[in-house]
Amino acid sequence: MGPKVNSAASDLQIANKPFYGQHRAKNLLSRSIVAERLAHAYLFRGPQGVGKQLLARGLAAAVNCKQGQGLSACGVCTSCKKFSAGTHPDFLLVSPEKGAIKIAQIRKLIKVLSFAPYEAKIRVVLIEDVHTMRQEAANSLLKTLEEPPPNNLLILTADSAGNVLQTIISRCQTIPFYALSAAETTEILRGQDGNLEMETATLLARLAEGSPGRAQLLQRKELVEFWQDLLGLLLEQSGDEALDVSKILRKAEAMAALKEDLPHLFSLIRLWIRDCLFEIQGQQVDSGSLNTRKGWNCEQFFAKLQAINQAEKELARNCNRTLVCEVLLFRLKE
């Protein structure tokens, strides 16, 4: 029989806030802590914005908590207070710089790991978004990843869609993360913002497709409002061709100004198209007015999906962003 897991793993709180979902990950990690059989390196892999980084920070606090059990850090000991404040000297964070983790960052990390932890029982290193790691950086990390110096725990995170090198995967214990339910996502959003109306939180949760982090980004960047305005433009039938062209050009310019947030807008447009296709097939979609369409058929909607795919390819080749958005909107309007 395996070790008894503290039931608080299901009611885990990080920085005094509840951590929803990811029950399998929480139970696996809690069992390992209780049994004192933590791996030397973990790979937290799953969709963006579902709690990978947050749970990594919770694990870092738990393994050094002076009073906790399993994943349940007490939150009041000196170690927990430092983790909560983000000032613990034995928690190291490596994040992508300008979109990639570079070899200089890994070399600096390896040098730090050659020294013993300052005060913690276990130094914890969180390397975010390892799917962005360049080949030379990955090669530099491999030996340390396979045999970290004593009293060091490495936690790597990666998006499920990201391409992680097999040499990294083979040296870590992979912990899978999954999209949260709409109810869990809604509860997180309401907990983060007590003034958020239930209707708005429910819509954000659905649009984010189980990613609270993405829902918060959509809210913070006001992308839902932008998307709704865009749909209004696509569905509008003014009868004035010159006016329609003028509106499309202005909206394309506003789209181009979104820059790195454009992929999120594209995802919202795809979701609307998917709902429209479900509606055409006679399936009910609980999406309010999201499945509104203008008499387009399946073939036309698939053409719109292809237009989005083409726009993404052109943006990846650094084509003129405004021009790409203009062409896309005209094709979506057809």
Number of helices: 14
- Bin the strand percentage: 5-15%
Helix content: 40-55%
CATH homologous superfamily caption of the largest domain: P-loop containing nucleotide triphosphate hydrolases
**Beginning-to-end CA distance, first to last residue:** 63 Å
What is the spatial order of strands in the main beta sheet? Answer: 4-5-6-3-7
Largest sheet properties: 5 strands, parallel
What would CATH call the architecture of the largest domain? 3-Layer(aba) Sandwich
Summing up helix and strand content along with how strands pair, one would put the structural category as alpha/beta
CATH C-level class of the largest domain is Alpha Beta
CATH fold description of the largest domain: Rossmann fold
Stretches where pLDDT is under 50 for at least 5 consecutive residues are 1-11
- How many E strands? 7
Overall mean pLDDT: 85
